[in-house]
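Lesson 9: reading folded outputs for more than one chain in a single document. The general rule is that every protein is listed as its sequence immediately followed by its structure tokens, and records are never interleaved. Here is the first one.
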Amino acid sequence: MTSDKSNLFSGDEKEILQEIMNIAFGNATADLAEVVDIYVQLSVPEIDIISIGKLPDYLQNTIGTGSKVSTVDQKFWGDFNGSGLLVFPSETGTDLLTLFKNHKPSKSEPSSTESLNKGVLLEIGNLLIGACVGKISELLDTFVTYSPPQVLSGSEEGYTFLNDYFNSDQAAIIMKTIFKFKKEDLNGLLLILTNQESIGWLRKSLADFMESYE
């Protein structure tokens, strides 16, 4: 398999997928805003197509290096098949906790704080990824099932620990948006990775989606 995956979709297909993402991500943040009662602001969604093995480099270029991150992964299954990745700066966990608990946890209880932070990350990941993937699936007239979300961890810097969780030979269609919790100065990165097995189905579904509006 060649390393160049950029020609897997035409320009028109990418534009359709971007618009579907825009609808789906808006749906996801609306669901989250209902929980934390805070408006979530999205960047314009972007589409990139790379090899999964290049994901660490992609994140380095997108987020940068020098700080640890907290990453939530939730896999989904069906015609639309892949993973949702939610990436936060690691220090964001405690700040996110305040959105749900309305107070900062005691510094004297680090083990409890760590457990609560993980729980908040999983809850936000489940809400954002589930709502986003669910809306994409609805718009493309299919449905998916989900694995429980998990917090990914690794000791290496530079995101290379992600290679332990994904097949590096697969193509990745990355659907990316950066989101901010308005008034809280918190932000993160939401990626929807759909693997090579879904490419044929996805291209046909995008064509059917456009035909339904003609």
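And here is the second record, again sequence then tokens.
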Amino acid sequence: MARNGSYVSEAVIRRMPKYYRYLEDLEKTGVERVSSKELSQRMGLTASKIRQDFNCFGGFGQQGYGYNVSDLKKEIMKILGLDRTYNVIIVGAGNIGQALANYTGFEKEGFFIKALFDINPKLIGMSIRDIMIYDLDSLEDFLAKNPIDIAVISTPKDKAQEVADRLTRNGIKSIWNFAAIDVAVPRGVIAENVHLSDSLYTLSYRIRESLE
């Protein structure tokens, strides 16, 4: 939903993080103003498409001036919900789970990992950047005592749905799923299923296309 209550397409929503990244880069290099044309050249979109995207949320530019980089970044930050903080847990402390826990960029954007969970006795009791790895059997007890906004699933795919069910039964409303399978969730729960191979397959397609 946009601020005026109108429907915003999935394609527009998927582009908003990209706008945010480009504006962040511009701000870091000291750029104060940018036009839709300049953004279009950087992003590979038409200027009219960019204006249409922003108009879904009210529009932020001034004709003849363009966009104030800092102000536009703040507006998109609000749209993306990045003006607040989130408590996160990771279920599955294998390669993907550990990589996510080691990435400090999440904290800079307000996502704070509070715990990891696993069934491997060799991992239980260890910590990653002072984030403890707990026994998966303690998941329900931990959720009962700690407010968690987002749960990350990075388990083998044959365990992912079972984990998702446990999470939702215990009050988790948002899931970021890295298992190689889409998880089903009840109404009112948000699940973002990430398939790392999709980007690689897209790259492979573009390579093949370029060779024809």
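What the second record shows: The chain has nine helices and nine strands.
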